[in-house]
TrEMBL record:
Species: Streptomyces sparsogenes DSM 40356
PANTHER family: GLYCEROPHOSPHODIESTER PHOSPHODIESTERASE, CYTOPLASMIC, GLYCEROPHOSPHORYL DIESTER PHOSPHODIESTERASE
Superkingdom to which the source organism belongs: Bacteria
Cited InterPro entries: GP_PDE_dom, PLC-like_Pdiesterase_TIM-brl
Lineage: Bacteria, Bacillati, Actinomycetota, Actinomycetes, Kitasatosporales
Gene3D superfamilies assigned: Phosphatidylinositol (PI) phosphodiesterase
A Pfam family per the record: GDPD
GO molecular function terms noted in the UniProt entry: phosphoric diester hydrolase activity
Name this polypeptide is given: Glycerophosphoryl diester phosphodiesterase
GO biological process, one term: lipid metabolic process
Domain (GP-PDE): residue spans on this chain: 3-224
Length: 227
């Protein structure tokens, strides 16, 4: 069975998260897929950042939506890196991407870029929010989508199917063999996050997961020797 290793915000355990530096390192280290997060700037740019505020990962303060793209570009996102826009990541790396959207406004912006840049085969769209995935399904019926969840039960399978998602991306600490088997029976792939240690990797393989999202590049190397 193929086990995908997915670089979490690039390889955020060793590089500033959601920066070009982190994404390039993830590709160089051989991660199969690169995951990133998307918000909209005040002027509608599709910027790559996890939090709704810039405080944790930059030298600025305040909500992303209060900044124009030019203002966001002036912030230090770690080691001198700047906050990238989605299109820059598409151009910088060749790996498949998982783009996590935070709301329906970002869904519409992402759908426009995917259409304009012909990225359907390269980008999976992820979200914690059912309504954002439903919006993507309406805008891009052929898009591959995944429902992300941290606290969940078996109902997450029905939620995913209701919005047309083909994959679950789930907190590995709550995953059970029953859920994985039921998801697979419903033709849903299951990815676990975050797989950061050998024990996490053994658990992921033991549960029969289709892949793991990791902060560290060495998990890619370790995955070759587990089954």
């Amino acid at each position: 069975m193929t086990f995908l290793t997915i670089g979490h915000r690039g390889v955020m355990g060793v590089e500033p998260e959601n920066t070009l530096r982190s994404f390039l390192r993830a590709e160089r280290e051989g991660l199969d897929v690169i995951e990133l997060d998307l918000h909209l700037s005040k002027d509608g740019a599709l910027v790559v950042m996890h939090d709704a505020e810039v405080d944790r990962t930059t030298d600025g303060e305040g909500p992303i939506g209060d900044f124009t793209l030019a203002e966001l570009r002036g912030l230090d996102a770690g080691q001198g890196e700047r906050i990238p826009v989605f299109e820059e990541v598409v151009d910088a790396v060749g790996a498949p991407l998982q783009a996590e959207i935070k709301d329906t406004a970002a869904a519409r912006a992402l759908a426009e870029v995917i259409t304009r840049r012909d990225l359907l085969d390269r980008v999976d769209v992820l979200s914690f929010h059912d309504e954002a995935l439903a919006e993507i399904r309406t805008l891009l019926p052929e898009a591959r989508t995944a429902l992300v969840a941290s606290r969940y039960g078996l109902d997450v399978i029905d939620r995913a199917r209701a919005v047309g998602a083909g994959m679950l991306v789930l907190n590995i600490r709550r995953l059970t063999l029953e859920l994985v088997q039921r998801a697979h029976a419903a033709d849903l792939k299951v990815i676990g996050w975050t797989v950061n240690t050998p024990d996490h990797l053994k658990l992921a393989r033991g549960l029969g997961l289709d892949g793991g999202t990791t902060d560290f590049p060495e998990i890619k190397r370790a995955a070759r020797y587990t089954a």
